[in-house]
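During the no-cost extension, the postdoctoral fellow (Dr. R.K.) reprocessed legacy sequence entries with the updated structure-token encoder. One reprocessed record is reproduced below for audit purposes.
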Amino acid sequence: MPFKKSSLSGLSSLGLLTVCLVPVAANAQQGVEGSNQLEEVIVTSSGVPVARRTIGTTVEVITQEDITRFGNLSLLDILRQQPAIAATNSGGPGKTSALRIRGEEGYRTLSIYDGLRLSDASAPQVTPLFEHTQSGGVGRVEILKGPQGLSYGADAGGVVNMTSPVIAQGNEFDIASEWGEFGTRQVDASVVGNTGQVDYFLSVSDLETDGFNTRQSDNVLQDDDGYENTTVHGRLGFAITDNWIVKAVHREVDAASEYDGCFSGTTVHDCDSEYDLSASRLSVDYTGNGMSHSLGYSVSRTERAEYALRSYSFGGEGELERLEYLGSLSELPGFDLVVGADWEGSEADGNSRDNVGVYAEYLSDFSDELFINVGARHDDNDDYGTNTSLRVSAAYLLTLDEQRQLKFKSSYGTGFRAPSLYEIAYNAGPSASPPASNTQLVQEESEGWEAGVEFFNTDGLYLGLIYFDQDIDNAITFDLQAFSGYLQDVGRSNSRGVEASMEVPVTERLSVLANYTYNKTEQPDGQTRLRRPENLFNLGLNLTALNDQLHFNLYYRSASDAVDSVFGARTPLTDYGVVDASMRYAFTSNIEVYGRLENATDEQYEEVAGFYTAERAAYMGLRLQF
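Re-encoded structure tokens follow.
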């Protein structure tokens, strides 16, 4: 039976209700067994649940089963397996990392977890810190690509929307312990439940690793650079009536990392970093006949401290405060309407500013084959005035027979990013020098479009081919040559390319997943943008055996033709291919053992010039579920 948008119109990405996520998870699992993937519910594209067949944007979905299959502790290492997503890491767990969607900077990616925006206002750019986001406790991820200023406002050059697990009824407990190479030890414990009136989730994760020597220039100490992370994440929903639901979310992250290459008069290799996040959100949702309303308030506080030779070097404090409203009308003649408004107050080291945004999107509902969505957003920023963001998308379904359908889709979107409070303060402070100190930073502006075709078969076969092209005007960069501060490109940076992907259920027990991305990037001067591989390839084999007790997974990823900069001088990065393997065996429905081999061929490569990557490493663990 086709999915009707109006049936779940009261649910939003600002605060998902359990009733939304339960059918999503069920449908994702059935997709492997042969259901129609076009009916999968997607929330992140427009903020309300819609069927995949109706959206012209590109949204990648990672289910809880996918996360279990990959097995990686870091969510970043799972995200990088998706089409057109590249990641860089500076020396292992907890070290500075970036996730780039379709070639854009990592700080243009918006990260959301159960409605909480995990943006660090104390960082040089308001950015998600994926190096401190573990995969434990994540139930589902939706990745929306391209400039997404419409629903999400500034800084959204792509959206990673995470939600915690849910169940339809009862209680489930999960305890897992893992240990392995580099003195790695992790314990995860979680409980999820649903009584019908109350649904809840609580996860506690504790990770310690001795790490390895992160930087090639550390040829004196050559010491291991460890990492510790303790994360607590909780979600609670209470249905006051059939129409009214109150929800609360809280997240705490306490992390500490050792690294190389800080400065204390001269470059030293005995450096430490501490990071603390405390974030909370409270929302009230109303769902009625053909309408929904959601009002939420959230606050996120971060603290960072850097130490050189065990002495405090520098640090920062930041706060993001948000008030959000999202509403929908789903019984209008031939269309649905989504409206929203938000206020965001940001503060970093004593500097602050506000941004107010309002938006609306038209979602067509006059046809079962053609879908057109059009929306606009207006922002008013304290420092940079008013901005207008747009998005237009379309999808057309061509039914070949009862099992096979083609979907043609296209979208165009715009966005902007105001210079961060840190960037402005740095250029105005004593650490800056010409030319940066003489640069008056203006906002970045982005636009992008995509067009593609997708093939769906009810047996689970999927084929996709997408072309994308997006631009950034006035991109802000740090002066890597003279270290004078933040400079601004004069002109346009471009990122364009092709994504090709497939999912093939070879048999009931064996499936193959593969994707390839060609990504051509250019700065205004014509040079390739830094740390963007031109070619990305991922291949996955998933096998089940012994009555589904044994699961074996093999993954290969490669990247080639990327460059970096060392003190202003360009240097090519090593092409590489990495093989990971994971296996889990269920002795009973409650007891499971699992193992993972990362970088099985012991590939030697760099993602950031001058920084080591992990050698071959083996891990094993035990999970109890009841």
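The chain has five helices and 39 strands. The longest helix spans residues 18-33. The remaining legacy entries will be reprocessed before the final report is submitted.
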